[in-house]
């Protein structure tokens, strides 16, 4: 089965948020939230990162640095370097501030920023060649 672009997007989200591959039911559910119910990918990412099963992995109390380190550990199986940790910590703060500026609820903007950051980190990791910092 070939996945749609939205399903591919949520496959990456599952890896970061749930630490597992998605099932077809989950892919279809989140796909419908975007394509049928008109929610943005960022909103759905915020919903996913606010779910109790995900906040058990990434507690809301984590600082930006701790969240970035958790993504490095859980998704990439390694410890971050200082440059990467600082870059992504600044990135999540920028994302969160951007969502707040757009009028999003402050608490939900934090979850949206986490979801977007995880996706940005995964996409950057997939684009980097082995042995290349990214």
Layout of strands and helices, then pairs:
Blueprint: H1 5-17, H2 24-35, H3 41-50, H4 52-55, H5 64-76, H6 82-101, H7 106-127
Structure description:
The protein has 134 residues and is mainly alpha-helical. It contains seven helices and no strands. α5 crosses α6 (82-101), α5 (64-76) crosses α7 and α6 (82-101) crosses α7. It is globular and about 40 Å long. The N and C termini lie far apart (31 Å). The model has no long low-confidence stretch (mean pLDDT 89).
Q: What's the quaternary structure here?
A: single chain
**What is the percent of helical residues?**
over 70%
Structural class: mainly alpha
The N- to C-terminal Cα distance equals: 31 Å
Q: Report the sheet with the most strands, covering strand number, pairing sense and barrel closure.
A: none
Percentage beta strand: under 5%
Written as H for each helix and E for each strand, in order along the chain, the element string is: HHHHHHH
What integer is the average pLDDT?
Answer: 89
Q: Let me know the number of strands.
A: 0
Rg:
14 Å
Shape: globular
Low-confidence spans: none
* Count of helical regions: 7
Summary tags:
mainly alpha; 70% helix
Brief sketch in words of this structure:
This protein is mainly α and 134 residues long. The protein has helices at 5-17, 24-35, 41-50, 52-55, 64-76, 82-101, 106-127. It is built from 7 helices and no strands.
């Amino acid at each position: 089965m070939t996945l749609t672009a939205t399903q591919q997007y949520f496959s990456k989200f599952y890896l970061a948020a749930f630490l597992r591959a998605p099932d077809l039911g989950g892919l279809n559910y989140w796909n419908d939230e975007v394509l049928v119910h008109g929610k943005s990918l960022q909103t759905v990412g915020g919903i996913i990162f606010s779910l109790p099963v995900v906040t058990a992995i990434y507690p809301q109390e984590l600082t930006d640095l701790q969240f970035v380190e958790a993504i490095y550990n859980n998704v990439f199986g390694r410890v971050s370097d200082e440059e990467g940790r600082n870059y992504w910590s600044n990135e999540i703060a920028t994302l969160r501030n951007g969502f707040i500026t757009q009028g999003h609820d402050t608490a939900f903007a934090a979850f949206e920023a986490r979801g977007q950051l995880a996706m940005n980190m995964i996409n950057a990791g997939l684009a980097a060649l082995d042995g290349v910092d990214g």
